[in-house]
Amino acid sequence: MFRALWSAASGMESQQSNLEVISNNLSNVNTMGYKRQRANFQDLMYQTIIPPGEASSLEGNQVPTGYEVGMGSRLASIQKVFLQGSLRSTGNPLDLAIEGNGFFVLRLPDGRKAYTRDGTFNIDGKGQLVNPDGLTLDPRIVVPKNAKTIHVSRSGEVSATVPGQTKPVHLGQIVLAQFVNPAGLTSRGNNIFMETGASGRPTLSNPSINGAGHLQSGFLEASNVNVAEELVNMVIGQRAYQMDTSIIRTVNRLLGYTATI
Fold first, then answer.
1. What is the pLDDT at residue 1?
2. Region at 111 (left for phi over 0; alpha for psi -120 to 50; beta for the rest)
3. How far apart are CA 155 and CA 171, in angstroms?
4. Cβ within 8 Å of residue 230, ≥6 positions away
5. Which of 100, 131, 165, 250 has the most CB atoms less than 10 A away?
6. Could you give the 3-state DSSP secondary structure of residue 230?
7. Each residue's pLDDT expressed in tens, for the chain with a length of 261 residues
8. Are 225 and 25 in contact (CB under 8 A)?
């Protein structure tokens, strides 16, 4: 009976973590470039009373199944799901969406590089393309003060129309980073990810080359959270948590009966 208590307790802890993941997904349903997370679970160790295939019945026959009692469940990992989010039109040429694989490369103040799917870019006081937190796009792209219009091609070439020039002036090239295991990136918040040993080293290439996606200027990639799916998962998690609490109450009642004997 005590095993049932610990199994139910581990189930409650697992479902609590599951609901926290779902809550975070729903809170970021309108966060541009957000990738939903999924809680993965594993069963815990088993107490083997009779090993399978080693026991014999009274008639001398080998018993095909053993006697194992599970000890509950645990949270194994919280996995990022890098499915493509829908594209939303903004009409702003500096809003960029990646259609396909890859991440924009940002440079942190300490010189390290960060990666994002959020293509919300602006021009700072120095003319540099920066994200909403002021992190510069890497490689650095500077827009002239007298630029009239800015154009970003599907292949990441940035150009601008400048007075006195008959042809658009080339300003720079946007590159995308790809990872062998993007789910191994660590979330830093503010819509950016950092490289880890699990993600592997980034491979840089121009958009539309070597498997990298192409850019859509005037669009942003929305969160890939499916609200209906998350609500269903939340109901399942709530009911699983409720059933675990019912098991604890039931075992407690049975132990109470035993104590009165």
1. 57
2. left
3. 14
4. 22, 25, 26, 36
5. 131
6. helix
7. 577 888 888 999 999 999 999 999 999 999 999 999 999 999 888 887 777 776 565 666 677 777 788 888 999 999 999 999 999 999 999 999 999 999 999 999 999 999 999 999 999 999 999 999 999 999 999 999 888 899 999 999 999 998 888 889 999 999 999 999 999 999 999 999 999 999 999 999 999 999 999 999 999 999 999 999 999 999 999 999 999 999 888 888 887 777 665
8. yes
Task: Classify residue 152 by burial, with Cβ atoms within 10 Å: 0-12, 13-18, 19+.
Answer: buried
E-assigned strands of 51-156? 67-70, 73-80, 87-89, 96-99, 103-107, 113-116, 122-123, 129-130, 136-137, 149-152
Structure tokens at 203: 């491979």
Show the beta-strand stretches assigned E in the chain: 37-43, 46-50, 67-70, 73-80, 87-89, 96-99, 103-107, 113-116, 122-123, 129-130, 136-137, 149-152, 157-161, 169-173, 176-178, 186-189, 192-194, 203-205, 214-217, 219-221
Q: What is the dihedral of CA 160, 126, 219, 164, to 10 degrees?
A: -10
The pLDDT score that the predictor gives to residue 68 is: 80
User: How far, in Å, CA of 158 to CA of 183, rounded?
Assistant: 30
Residues 6 or more apart whose Cβ sits within 8 Å of residue 10:
44, 71, 72, 73, 74
